[in-house]
């Protein structure tokens, strides 16, 4: 399956009959590309005021343009989740822009692979831990600090099926980092549900995102590979992952706390 074009992504995230996030403020880290962009578009289509965050202003501006072209409300803020001060400033700016923070999606992440555990480069390990794990912690701490003082909220962390649910050779550091995100999510969920903050995770498998392409692989080649590797026979659409995130963030999931929702076409079943 090919990656979504701006037009196809917008079509799949058109506003439903009864938007669930009207007047809600939603923060999406890593919102400039791939799944983060799809998630941001989906929230905007359901009436949310969306802040997209990331390290590259250029990609954030693309997401911003797509949301505004569809009639949505959004703002872009550059931030590096590996820096706690950046994330605290990001949450403050979100509140300044739209008056609060109701939902946060901690999607920012990086991939490093190609090495077994004994040969894994320490610089790649440090990058994975800084962004995929500590970055989620920085984000969650700043988000919870606001939410518990302002009536609660919902947080969805983006993990992966690789690590928490299935292991493959040569992806050591990434798998460890995403297993940590899953454990962090469940532990934090127990800590903060009494504060009125619901915390959950999604764990996508291969999806309509550049990160799911092998080095040098084309989208057509990925499609052939997934027919062999996935019981479903294809990657997940970006809109399908976004729909799961929106469900966990919505009142429909009001009793869902500390879950890790796997979206991988049955690979880890």
Largest sheet, strands/sense/barrel? 7 strands, parallel
Number of β-strand runs:
7
Give the helix/strand class: alpha/beta
Low-confidence stretches: 1-15
* Oligomeric state of shown chains: single chain
Report the average pLDDT across residues: 93
How far apart are the first and last residues' alpha carbons, in Å? 22 Å
Computed Rg: 17 Å
Number of domains: 1
Helix content: 40-55%
CATH topology: Rossmann fold
How would you spell out the order of helices and strands? Answer: HEHEHEHEHEHEHHE
| Widest sheet: strand ordering | 3-2-1-4-5-6-7
Q: Classify the beta-strand content into a percent band.
A: 5-15%
Can you identify the CATH superfamily? Answer: NAD(P)-binding Rossmann-like Domain
Q: Assign an overall shape.
A: globular
Number of distinct helices: 8
* CATH architectural name: 3-Layer(aba) Sandwich
CATH C-level category = Alpha Beta
How are the SSEs placed, and which strands pair?
Blueprint: H1 6-12, E1 25-29, H2 34-45, E2 49-54, H3 57-69, E3 73-78, H4 84-98, E4 103-106, H5 122-148, E5 153-158, H6 172-192, E6 197-204, H7 219-229, H8 238-249, E7 260-263
Parallel strand pairs: 1-2, 1-4, 2-3, 4-5, 5-6, 6-7
Kindly list the characteristics that best describe this protein.
269 residues, alpha/beta, Rossmann fold, seven-stranded parallel β-sheet, 44% helix, globular, disordered N terminus
